[in-house]
Amino acid sequence: MTITIEEETEVTFTFDYCKLAEEVITFALDEESFPYEAEVNLTLVDNDAIWEINREYRNIDRPTDVLSFPMLSYQTAGDFSDIEDDIEGNFNPDTGEVLLGDIVISIPKVFEQAEAYGHSVRREFAFLIVHSVLHLLGYDHMTPEDAAFMENKQKNILNAMNILR
């Protein structure tokens, strides 16, 4: 598995966030029984940068906490049976890994939301990664049913990792 982490802003976490990111991404993919080695890019930014990305790609004129840019298309979320149908488009020819996608996280939002929700910065960072990995696997929260399903998956993954509120 290749996880690339880029810091485009100062990251002042008091824990090893690179190690945590790798552990969370790997664990979430294992929990979802993702059958391939994967490439995931994680970019850590400030509110201005994520605001700009939101405006450019989502027509949202505000900063958000996390953005996910999946590289794969799914007929059904969590169904990986069609990935090999497009070897050239879905796999890195140099590594053989599936190009899963990109995650962008606003570091200031991690701190803001940890305080607002009354849990640790570590837990909020891990939560945003799990949330985004699920998006990379085709899950979404556009309907109340989908949101509840995704929230349950997030909770189960974090609980299994003992990353609690």
From TrEMBL:
Its cofactor is Zn(2+). GO terms for cellular component: cytoplasm. It is an enzyme of class 3 (hydrolase). Keywords: Cytoplasm, Endonuclease, Hydrolase, Metal-binding, Nuclease, Ribosome biogenesis, rRNA processing, Zinc. GO terms for molecular function: metalloendopeptidase activity; RNA endonuclease activity; zinc ion binding. The keyword Iron does not apply. It is found in: Cytoplasm. Its EC number is 3.1.-.-. Binds 1 zinc ion. It comes from the Bacteria. Zn(2+) binds at H131, H135, H141. GO terms for biological process: rRNA processing. The keyword Metal-binding applies. Its main location: cytoplasm. Pfam families: YbeY. Single strand-specific metallo-endoribonuclease involved in late-stage 70S ribosome quality control and in maturation of the 3' terminus of the 16S rRNA. Belongs to the endoribonuclease YbeY family. This is Endoribonuclease YbeY. It comes from Roseburia zhanii.
